[in-house]
Amino acid sequence: MTSAPVDYTRTSARPAFAALPEPVRAEIARLAGAAVQAADPPVGSGFTGSYAGVLHLANGRRVFAKAGGPAMPHVITGLRREAEVVPLLAGLACVPTLIGAAEVDCWAVLVLEHIDGHQPGMPWTARDADLAHAACLEVASLPPERLEPLHLTGLAEDVAANWGIDGAFGAFARGQRDWPHGIRRPSPEELAELAALAGRAGTALRGDALCHNDVRPDNLLITADRAMLVDWNWVRASPPWFDLVGLWPQMAHGRDRSGPLR
């Protein structure tokens, strides 16, 4: 079965800036350093449904703001983590600058620099792939002493223990779990192979390099000279190849067929 590439620009329905509570809007303006003069429609990418969008300030600047309220506690947790992580990665060319973060009336808000760029894919070009590759290498090469303040969880622990992926594929192979609808069901031999591969995750994913752990087209912005990685709330310790290898299937599936990605 061949499926169409996911359009990552249309995966989320988000509230408009004007729909946020007034104290939240005021706090975003305070963090940004100027009154909000206009707001672009919220971005359609992502999967949380919380607010995220570009704001035009009275001083002529643009910023990117995020906000999550008490109805989405997982978003608040993610914004808190991102507010911790991004300043610790200052100096990496692929990481946006955090302007400010705060909490008000049980809401968490983040204000980041605006990035003038486009989302890769639809299709993937060789240039976009090269820049994404460079960003993944930059993240993975961060010196060990820079990682200590991040207090990273190991990806192997998450995949094999907390998320139970190895057990899930074993259950598929034994017929104890239904295969997802809309995806071709593998043969018994293929399921057995998948279960065996997943069972190796606890060993294969051990590593001490930083990984973004959520590299998808909607978490990448291609600028004039680099790829920027956004949404830094899922960072883990992993082998240095993890982010790039995890992106390869999407690159291959959505590539520009007129030429190789290299």
In short:
34% of the residues lie in helices and 17% in strands.
Q: What does this molecule look like?
A:
Strands 1-2-3-5-4 form a five-stranded antiparallel β-sheet, with helices on both faces. A two-stranded antiparallel ribbon has the order 6-9. It has a two-stranded antiparallel ribbon with strand order 7-8. The chain has 262 residues and is α+β, with helices and mostly antiparallel strands. It has helices spanning 22-32, 73-88, 126-140, 144-147, 155-162, 165-173, 188-198, 201-204, 242-253, and strands spanning 36-39, 51-57, 62-68, 98-104, 107-113, 209-211, 220-222, 227-229, 236-238. The mean pLDDT is 92. The chain has two domains: 17-113, Phosphorylase Kinase, domain 1, CATH 3.30.200; 126-253. The chain is built from nine helices and nine strands. 34% of the residues lie in helices and 17% in strands. Helix 6 runs antiparallel to helix 7.
